[in-house]
Amino acid sequence: MANLSNNITAFLNFLAFMCSIPIIASGTWLASKPDNECIHWLRWPVVFIGIAIMLVSLTGFVGAYWKKEGLLGVYLVCMAILIVLLLVLLVLAFVVTGPTGSYMVPGRAYHEYRLEGFSYWLRDHITSADNWGNIRACLADSGICPRLNNHYVTAEQFFAADLSPIQSGCCKPPTICGYQYMTPILWTNPTNAIVDADCSIWNNDPSQLCYNCDSCKAGLLGNLRKEWRKSNLILIITLVILIWVYLIGCCAYRNTLTKPHSKK
């Protein structure tokens, strides 16, 4: 039974090792997105946890397969820490992927976004005055808005486009302002310039646009929600597997401790 428990633990840790590869790939994908590039503390947590899972799983595999008591002890401590960190990351992910803040606009294929529609925690930690200056400059430097000129020429093409939340919130004025389309980042003659504060903030300067608008802040949060939702399933499956592996690893460690006493 002891050998069987150790072999099962070794096998499960090998599976956990293999599962760390898509986690690292998912984290790298998240980190490469313009919004995550501009929010530094959100860029790499999934990648770091994926690498940690890979290393800890390798330690558990070696400790269980060769019945190394010390390695199994280190493995169990590190795995417990990893499970807690993953739980924290999942809580953060569910906060990010909570309310959408989006609303439909008649005659438009894309959605627009209200900052008030997202959680207070996100607004306080990401779009506050202390943080937005650097994020705004980063978004302006990313070139995400000027690139729209390469894809859309007419107003009909633009209004039928499936814009990302950032593109919808940062690269154009809110539809309610009544601006006239010239190019994706050039709009003139608003008919309702006082209906929303963002209407007067809009600027046709490519370095300004609507980067200071609440709609841009909401678009950034909308992008975060969209991308983190794609990673949530991987994180949940990983957490379930790690807890299962950890419980069996505890059995293997107990068996390793009792192994010397079973010898005559």
From TrEMBL:
TM helices/strands, residue ranges: 12-32, 44-66, 72-96, 233-255
Predominant location category: membrane
Gene Ontology cellular component list: membrane
Location(s), subcellular: Membrane
Membrane topology term: Multi-pass membrane protein
Gene Ontology biological process terms, A to Z: auxin-activated signaling pathway
Keyword Iron-sulfur: no
Keywords: Membrane, Transmembrane, Transmembrane helix
Pfam families: Tetraspanin
Highest taxon of the lineage: Eukaryota
Annotated family: Belongs to the tetraspanin (TM4SF) family.
Name of the protein described by the UniProt record: Tetraspanin-2
The species this protein was found in: Nicotiana attenuata
Gene name tied to this protein: TET2_2
